[in-house]
UniProtKB/TrEMBL annotation:
GO MF annotations, alphabetized: FAD binding; oxidoreductase activity, acting on the CH-OH group of donors, oxygen as acceptor
Source organism (scientific name): Phyllobacterium myrsinacearum
Protein name per Swiss-Prot or TrEMBL: FAD-binding oxidoreductase
Domain called FAD-binding PCMH-type: residue spans: 15-188
Chain ranges passing through the membrane: none
């Protein structure tokens, strides 16, 4: 494996999982077949990585080979009449925004960080605050270049009948290397966002505001104080936004202003500090509630302004937990989850609640489905945290919901299979050389 180097530097974004990998970082697409052949001929399993923003083990392949796609970041073509952008899979959403916002185009769907690659976003079929309007990114992908381990490169189209397109969207990198992709950008009138923040007092109020906002707002999301108890259980701040008309002020992408230079000691984050933060955040947010016009960057990507923010969780790292539960049981299941968290005293800063709409995701393993999604991160406190997460698993499974693989590093095979009944159909499209720690855990 001449183009690979051995390293133990690759760590999940949650910081809990790490492993020894053989890594190759090609600069040109025509080098990819050689990397694949070297890994295959050496009997190594292979996985692509982008910017490593997946929290758990779906982006790790310990003991095996990794192709780092981030140097493959060229634009291949762009048609301003249709908004169709064809680019190499390592191009980041940050670069797309930097180039295209000033030309009046925006990503049709974006996650809460812009430091993701096109290939990584497709492999997790990412969603954003506009799921109820736009669905997942996969709905906006028109073509994919996929390189398989036998050396064949296939152009997959969105009307593909073989099932390989549907398996590759949200396919966790297991169907082969996405070398390039074509997505449809959307037109925007300005680089500004009209945003309204509304405090809500409890879970019932959240569902009322969410239902009322679906028709009028392009983007909706809520932050929840998950340590609040009793009548205040589920209190939080709801934001709804849309691209502001007319304005031409351009927000330039800069480097993060603040950086967390090293992993914080674990005493910095304890129940007291998380509880204090949540209360302060809620009361400050409530005071400042109302309408505002803001640049798009802080609206879509508040965490991106703090470089390496994941280091505040210290060396032990954190667990992300993102579930979705169907609409009919959403209120009860969400209430039960918040009660379990509040009772356990295991707080989360970043508790995000959102309703997903009816737009069907094109991927066999796409996470979003109609219902309510709750995303949380918990500092890793060992067994205490794992016990709480198992309790949450029970609630989600009973509700007929599922968890997001991009945020997971621990669910059982049974839990995954219950949530993703198409997994067996998907497995038929997995390339025999491609694998990940996540896939081995849930398929073997
Ligand atoms: C702060 C933060 C906020 C987030 N918010 C959201 C959100 O709102 N919605 C959401 O959906 N997700 C969200 N995420 C998760 C993130 O969007 C996904 O994990 C995304 O896929 C990461 O992209 P990446 O380029 O870092 O990919 P990686 O994490 O490096 O890889 C992700 C997967 O893609 C595969 N892959 C990467 N490149 C290729 C390729 N070229 N060919 C084939 N497979 C490939 C990898 O094998 C892996 O399975 C968030 C993450 C963070 C850190």
């Amino acid at each position: 494996m001449r183009s690979f180097v051995s390293t133990d530097d690759i760590r999940s974004w949650g910081g809990i999982l790490q492993g020894q990998h053989f890594v190759s970082q090609p600069n040109w697409r025509d080098q990819l077949p050689r990397s694949i052949a070297e890994a295959r001929d050496a009997g190594q399993s292979l996985l692509a990585i982008g910017l490593g923003r997946s929290y758990g083990d779906s982006g790790l392949n310990p003991g095996g080979a990794i192709v780092d796609m981030t140097a493959l970041d060229r634009i291949i073509s762009f048609d301003p009449a249709t908004g169709l952008l064809r680019a190499e899979a390592g191009l980041s959403f940050a670069d797309i925004l930097d180039l295209f916002v000033r030309r009046g185009f925006f990503l049709p769907v974006t996650p809460g960080t812009r430091f993701v690659t096109l290939g990584g976003a497709i492999a997790n079929d990412v969603h954003g605050k506009n799921h109820h309007r736009a669905g997942t990114i996969g709905r906006w992908v028109r073509r994919i270049g996929l390189l398989r381990s036998d050396g064949t490169e296939i152009e997959l189209r969105d009307d593909d009948q073989t099932g390989l397109f549907a398996a590759t969207i949200g396919g966790l990198g297991l169907t082969g290397l996405i070398t390039w992709a074509e997505i449809e950008l959307m037109r925007i009138p300005s680089a500004l966002m009209d945003v309204e923040t509304l405090p809500f007092a409890n879970v019932d109020e959240f569902f009322a505001v969410a239902a009322e906002s679906e028709d009028s707002a392009d983007y909706t999301v809520a932050w929840v104080d998950c340590l609040a108890k009793g009548n205040a259980l589920g209190r939080g701040l709801f934001t709804r936004g849309r691209h502001a008309p007319g304005g031409t002020k351009l927000a330039r992408v800069g480097k993060p202003k603040l950086t967390v230079p090293f992993s914080m000691p674990s005493f910095v984050l304890n129940n007291l500090s998380i509880g204090l933060f949540n209360s302060l955040y809620f009361y400050r947010g409530r005071r400042a509630a109302g309408k505002a016009t803001t640049p798009y960057l802080p609206y879509f990507y508040p965490l991106d302004s703090i470089g390496h923010w994941n280091r505040i969780y210290g060396r032990r790292g954190m667990y992300q937990y993102q579930s979705v539960v169907p609409p009919v049981v959403a209120r009860d299941a969400t209430t039960e989850m918040l009660k379990a968290i509040s009772k356990a005293g295991e707080g989360s800063f970043l508790a995000v609640l959102k309703t997903f709409g009816e737009k069907t995701s094109p991927g066999l393993l796409s996470f979003p489905q109609a219902g309510t999604t709750l995303a949380l991160d918990f500092p890793n406190r060992g067994q205490l945290t794992l016990d709480l997460l198992s309790r949450l698993d029970d609630i989600v499974r009973e509700a007929g919901g599922r968890l997001y693989p991009a945020k997971d590093g621990r669910i059982s095979a049974a839990m995954f299979r219950a949530g993703y009944p198409a997994w067996e159909a998907f497995a038929q499209h997995v390339d025999p050389v491609f694998s990940s720690a996540f896939w081995r855990r849930i398929s073997e």
